[in-house]
Amino acid sequence: MWRRWIRNLSIELHWMRRNIMRRWRLDTPTVVMGIITIISGCLLFIVIGNGISQIFRSFVPWVSGSRVGEVYWQSIGFGIKTSFIFLCFSCSLIVYILLKLSRRH
């Protein structure tokens, strides 16, 4: 009985996915790069917000001698995360714009 339900659900999901792809053409390079741009932009927004909140939290109790190393490595990690996500965002935005311009009808 469970196998029959699972089989019916998998068939339904297969046709739903196929209809969604056919209707909105989600498999084109422009749409894929647009989705990647939106996701990386949201991640960049979250990481920058997290970094700003950490900066404010670290300055509330002025950094003492034992926490200097911790704040230092947090700032290094924040810089690496931010630069990596910004690089992904910038590259995907550039590729998205190039794909949009090259597919002009």
UniProtKB/TrEMBL annotation:
**Record keywords, A-Z:** Membrane, Transmembrane, Transmembrane helix
Q: Where are the transmembrane segments?
A: 31-56, 76-99
| Superkingdom of origin organism | Bacteria
Please verify whether the record's keywords include Membrane: yes
Q: What is this protein called?
A: Uncharacterized protein
